[in-house]
Specification:
There is one protein chain. By secondary structure, the protein is of the alpha+beta class. 32% of the residues lie in helices and 23% in strands. Helix 1 packs antiparallel against helix 2 and helix 4 runs parallel beside helix 5.
């Protein structure tokens, strides 16, 4: 499965093709395979899985080489196409790889769909610098597989090699644990995954009293039954391992979430799942879908005595093509992109600052810029609507209040985004504060600050060294 949506444009798509090429090279001649691409639509190379002959592998390579990224991400159709049981009876194990950045908006519904098709093993490949790990980790857990992450700076050989080592040589399959007469309860996960050589299988449970006994491990090794007995002592108290309580609680929360992913996605889980998850979060002091840690300031200061909501944008992930997601860039638009936060929430993602003057940014016109007036230089670094609001404020008076092209001017001040060339340092912060700038938020990368600024000082702010562009806040 190959994600060809717009967010995969450019470097992520090329890295995806590189990794898939390596996976195709490792397919066993006795295997059957298929290749499916998905964005807004789903395209299957073959009607059904075909033998891994040199001719079919060549067709797959040609199919992938012609793949182009664009459009939205509709993964659910691809899930159905890849995981739904085949009409023809077969004893083969179905292995499904998903190569994607995971930028979708229905994470939990996807996990629920994977869980429904228990016959396949799912091995997601996260491609890119800022992938949706919540979704990809969850896909691997629900599909009893393992996840690999391939950044744009990585070569794909290592990930492809580990993938084939796992699917070719699982240490144990169909694993089960018999606890005998030991007072053990709520052992999680309920469905034990296959054991691979590269990663242990960890089970977490609780016991009600001290005891000693024998645990019997069973599974299939090389297709043949396998069994081993292990003597176990459950102590009365072990203070050094108190953290195991929280680990069990996390596993229990995951188990409860697994029981109704779609309900969690819609905010209406069935029965008392929400109450039980909330109780575990509070009792064991862990973050869950319904509980979180909140820091409360002893003193809250609000501008003008009134609370104000400040919209802080999330910057585009490294390596993701703006044009591939949003199309051609427009002047200072705040766009929305589903990036697969837990629960499928969307995050606001701004476009790159609009270039309003070619004279500033074009290399062949730098000489003209050097001869420009300070007003011309400032205008090239400020959104036109802000400049127009500044002109109107100078006419009305610098302490006036009015609305201009959606920009709220209150007593001569506006909310704005200041894009920076190389982050915020103490010297630049002092200069901005000296010009009356009030800081309201800052992106983690340091490349963008949300501020309240006086229109009277707009040109001086734009001309400061380190300021790249000034946008009206959205």
């Amino acid at each position: 499965m190959v994600d060809t949506s717009g967010s995969m444009s450019g470097a992520p798509m090329e890295k995806c093709k590189e990794t898939m090429e390596l996976c195709l090279a490792g397919v066993n001649p006795k295997d059957t395979f298929n290749v499916i691409t998905f964005s807004g639509d789903t395209h299957l190379l073959f009607e059904k899985p075909v033998p891994a002959t040199p001719e079919n592998i060549a067709r797959a390579r040609a199919f992938l080489s012609g793949a182009r990224a664009g459009g939205g991400t509709e993964m659910m159709k691809a899930i159905e196409a890849a995981l739904a049981p085949s009409k023809s009876a077969s004893n083969a194990v179905r292995i499904v790889t998903f190569m994607t950045d995971g930028y979708v908006g229905n994470d939990m519904a996807i996990l629920g769909a994977i869980q429904k098709y228990s016959g396949a093993r799912v091995f997601p490949f996260g491609i890119g610098q800022s992938v949706n790990r919540f979704l990809l980790d969850g896909m691997a857990a629900a599909g009893r597989g393992e996840v690999e992450y391939v950044t744009l700076n990585d070569r794909g050989e290592g990930a492809a090699r580990r993938f084939f080592e796992r699917v070719r040589n699982p240490v144990l399959t169909d694993v089960s644990v018999d606890w005998g007469n030991l007072p053990v309860e709520e052992v999680l996960p309920r469905r034990v995954p296959d054991l691979f050589s590269s990663k242990p299988v960890v089970l977490t449970g609780r016991f009600s009293r001290p005891a000693e006994g024998t645990v019997v491990l069973r599974g299939r090794l090389g297709g043949k039954p396998w069994e081993r007995s292990v003597q176990v002592r459950l102590p009365r108290d072990q203070a050094d391992h108190e953290v195991l309580g929280q680990l069990w609680a996390r596993a229990k929360v995951a188990d409860l979430m697994n029981q109704d992913w779609l309900g969690m996605q819609q905010g209406q889980p069935r029965g008392n799942l929400q109450e039980e998850i909330t109780r575990l979060g509070l009792e064991y002091r862990i973050m869950t879908q319904f509980t979180s840690f909140v820091a409360v300031e002893e003193m809250v200061v609000t501008e003008g005595g009134k609370p104000r909501t400040v919209a802080v944008p999330v910057e585009m992930p490294e390596g993701v093509s703006h044009e591939g997601v949003f199309g051609e860039p427009g002047p200072s638009k705040l766009q929305t992109m589903a990036v697969g936060a837990p629960g499928g929430f969307s995050r606001a993602m701004p476009s790159a600052p609009a270039v309003q003057s070619v004279e500033v940014w074009s290399a062949d016109r730098r000489d003209r810029l050097e001869n420009a007036t300070p007003q011309q230089k400032a205008a090239a670094r400020v959104h036109p609507n802000l400049m127009a609001a500044r002109t109107e404020a100078s006419t009305r008076g610098w302490t006036s209040t009015f609305l201009h092209e959606g920009i709220q001017v209150e007593k001569g001040r506006v909310q704005a985004w200041i894009w920076l060339n190389a982050g915020m340092d103490a010297k630049l912060r002092q200069k901005l504060q000296a010009l009356g700038v009030r800081f309201q938020g800052e992106a983690n990368s340091g490349g963008l600050v949300v501020v309240s600024l006086p229109l009277e000082k707009l040109e001086e702010i734009a001309l400061l060294e380190g300021v790249r562009y000034v946008d009206p806040a959205r």
